[in-house]
Amino acid sequence: MRPRVELIARTAVSIIAQRGLRGLTHRAVDEAAGLPPGSTSYHARTRVRLIETALTWLAEEDEQDLGEGESLDPGSAGGAAALIAEFTHSAVARDPDRTRARLELALEAGRNPDLRAVYDRIGARFRGLAERLMRELGSPEPARHARTVIAWMEGMAFDSLAGSGAAAPPSRSELHEGAAELLRALLPASRPRES
């Protein structure tokens, strides 16, 4: 992403997190980013394109956080639980604005077919990583179990930032314990396969 487009995307995400999608306008992005009027419109002509730009930036940031995924090698269910807990904790504690914006965008994608296609395409990458992780851990149903793990992560993030758990979000160790319990429930009783 070019630096100006990245600034626009990052600013749009911040606005979405703070004001919701109703607060996202081209003018609001220009002002918050300190750009000349019309700059955001030049790079993202429509509101849908501006939202897509923000969503794409979020996905790129998440991919950086995860690494390329090619090096995902937790080695064991315990290592996988630590990885899941760390990613979830990061979403809640390190950068809650990114997660709040992602939640807003997920709801909007449910109402907008163009955005739904972008959201689903980006989400497929993370689903693929989770499926591979579950396969490497010896899951008999890696696709179904990956979906369960992702739902747990997204549910924990929602509850911690917008749900009834927002007053007392879970600690990193509580997330680790929860992820470990989830993996024990999903994986075969025999020792999961080492990668």
UniProtKB/TrEMBL annotation:
UniProt superkingdom: Bacteria
Keywords noted in UniProt: DNA-binding
GO MF entries: DNA binding
Domain Tetracyclin repressor-like C-terminal group: 78-188
Residues that span the membrane, as ranges: none
UniProt keyword DNA-binding present: yes
Pfam families per the UniProt record, alphabetical: TetR_C_31
Protein name: DNA-binding transcriptional regulator YbjK
UniProt xrefs under InterPro entries: Homeodomain-like_sf, Tet_transcr_reg_TetR-rel_C_sf, TetR_C_31
